[in-house]
């Protein structure tokens, strides 16, 4: 039996169509299996904010004890290791003097008390974060609520963000942090060697409707709120009092405001 | 055949060496992973789906939680679960020290039908033995090494 050219092409066409059709059918089934009908919801009692902001009321930080209490509360909750050398140091919230906090406005005739005053410093959760621009993997990003956060799964430890951040708010895990965690909190993950870390704005507390750990431990020294909400305390302070921010010349629009003048706010 | 005897002898030796692993393991049952989860319960999605897609689901959970701030997963049956690795651990990391021995109450079942006696007896020890845990035993069987526990915590700081 012999077939001519026309018959051969017809049969080949039919076989190809059958093969393609069945492969589409199996792909379709696979897709349905891969996406079970499901959805994702936000936490029921989450504190829904749009513009994360913090005011540091310097009048409330008189003694070293006031500052250490705040720092320790963060260290404890977030499993921050206490490293023995400053190179390995991991910092989420710490303090520094005027000269280093507000480097651009330092002058030699500055009031002595101001010069020596310890300023609480942390990630500023900038509106225009330099670290996010620098991150090559998208591990660092700004959330809708304004928190500049990290997906540690994606961090490749390149440290571009550390170079980009003008505030030194990022630390690299040169060593495995776990042996250096003094007071381990099993409810918060640790980090691992080779990733950068930073203050995460207490996203895990906001989703439960709680205040950030530092604000809660500060006895009113750190005022947290939503700057987009005109009834919030932070908005009232920032819009009526004189506050300063760190290193504004870099244009990152930091969201931590320092209330340096008088003691009564809002 | 020129030097035929030597060629055939060397061929036999060659084939014997090549087939050595096959004969060495002949008759040894390939014990499957020990799955000591409470029977009659269902994971966040049906078993067949979880078996095939749990890694994709975990990645989806991570992205929705970390990037979109979604903390609750509603499954295909309308049941809600917290997006947290602890949700997995509640069943898949049974602490035999506190709960009743999973080996005694829930006979260990495996995908191949053969149970691994060594692992089931370990499960009744009072000390938590990570090697008899669901994810560990499965991943070991499949030769997969996820790095979850270099950051995430096992219950009660067992990884510390």
TrEMBL record, chain A:
The keyword Iron-sulfur applies. One of its GO terms (molecular function) is 4 iron, 4 sulfur cluster binding. CDD domains: PsrB. It comes from the Bacteria. It holds the Pfam family Fer4_11. Keywords: 4Fe-4S, Iron, Iron-sulfur, Metal-binding. Residues 116-145, 146-175 form the 4Fe-4S ferredoxin-type domain. NCBIfam families: DsrO, TAT_signal_seq. This is Chlorate reductase subunit beta. It comes from Desulfosporosinus acididurans. The lineage of its organism: Bacteria, Bacillati, Bacillota, Clostridia, Eubacteriales. The gene is clrB.
From TrEMBL, chain B:
It comes from the Bacteria. Residues 113-125 have a biased composition (Polar residues). This is Uncharacterized protein. Residues 102-125 are annotated as: Disordered. InterPro entries: DsrJ, Multihaem_cyt_sf. Residues 102-112 have a biased composition (Low complexity).
